[in-house]
Amino acid sequence: MAKALLGHLPSDTRGVHRLTSENARLRLRVSELETLVLRLQQENDRLRDIETTTLMEQEMLPA
């Protein structure tokens, strides 16, 4: 029973260390995902520009 209560005592720092570690891991993952979103947005913008240029060139060709 003492072991079961140990996790509920404020002097037990195992839970704090575990939460701190998990928080750091999640922050790193969020940062990685934010970087991925930015890269995909840039790639999407580039592809949209290419498509727009291609459509404009096709419109300029004589029918």
Automatic annotation (TrEMBL):
It comes from the Bacteria. Keywords: Coiled coil. Residues 16-53 form a coiled coil. This is Transposase. The lineage of its organism: Bacteria, Bacillati, Actinomycetota, Actinomycetes, Propionibacteriales.
